[in-house]
Amino acid sequence: MNNSLLKEILAQLGSGEIVPYLGQGVLRGVVDRDTGKPIPADSDSLILAMTGGQPMSPRLMYEFSRAAMHLENKKGRSFIERFLTQVYGGDNWTPSAVHQWLTSLDLPYIIDCNRDTQLQHCYIAAERKHTLVVGAARLAATPYRFDLYHFADGKYRKIALEQVDTTLPVIFKPHGTPLPKPGYVASDADFVDYITELMGGFAIPDWIKLHRKNKRYLFLGQHFNRDTERMVMSDMIYDAAEPAGWVLIDQPSDKERKVCERKNLQLIEADWSSLLALANPSATEVA
User: Fold this and answer.
1) 20 to 30 A Cα–Cα from 240, which one of 21, 100, 110, 218?
2) H helices of 107-155, where?
3) Maximal C-alpha separation, the chain
4) Which one-letter DSSP state was computed for residue 174?
């Protein structure tokens, strides 16, 4: 049954009516070219990378945002930004087959909840003009919680809302990115501010609010075991179609089952790599 459903999703994906929503799992298989170490993607690996391999207390290990808040209070917000930029800002990571595949589809809108640059680099390599929306938090100068960039002619340029070319494809990075300018939603304080403004309508540009109406979402590598993941998702897919899309999780928790039911998302008990294997049988998780 799963295979036939996945084939149906693939057949519809190119229409632009389905929005891929990427979580930490899609970075599985991406490693440092020199050391072979995996890219820190999930909460535990990020925390251990941030602390030099030293586990924190169980309360802080519960979620990266909580651990980041603890260290931000001790070392300042700039410490978290430097750490995330050091992890994700380099170009020594192996390329990801799933990001390359999604780039080949030339889709109008992709939400990427990771803080890496794989998808951006794929678009850059393809010389694809696009708009980059980067989530932001705790800004004093503006009510908006995003920065906008236009990519063309090999470089990003920061733009105002009224300068956006709404015909271009969009990469939305709600949790931030080091490229072109480092900026992240990472700590508890960041998420409190960001989610508050998401709920208030200030974290998503108006043209995307119009564009996303009645869209369906395809969740790849995304889990819903933590409140921040669920709350961000809930507002990002507001105004979705009915049903709202599909979630690929190989071994979902009871909590994830309930989230999918509540948000009218069809749960497919399969890993995201199953979809990639159908779409591109010759692809491997590390290209």
Assistant:
1) 100
2) 118-125
3) 52
4) T
Residue 37 main-chain phi, psi, to 5 deg: -75, 140
Strand order across the 245-248 sheet: 155-159, 146-152, 130-135, 170-173, 109-112, 18-22, 216-220, 245-248, 265-268
Contact (Cβ atoms closer than 8 angstroms) between residue 115 and residue 177: yes
Sorted by sequence, the CB contacts under 8 Å of residue 220 that are 6+ apart come out as 20, 21, 22, 23, 25, 26, 98, 248, 272, 275
Cα–Cα distances in Å, from 115 out to 7, 46, 57, 202? 29, 11, 24, 21
Q: What's the average model confidence in pLDDT over 224-249?
A: 97
> Please, which pLDDT band fits residue 2 given cuts at 50, 70 and 90?
confident
d(CA 194, CA 85): 20
- For residue 15, give the amino acid letter: S
Query: Cβ distance 188 to 137 under 8 Å?
Result: no
What is the DSSP-derived secondary structure letter of residue 103?
A: H
The 10s digit of each residue's pLDDT in 141-191 is 788 999 999 999 999 999 999 999 999 999 999 999 999 999 999 999 999
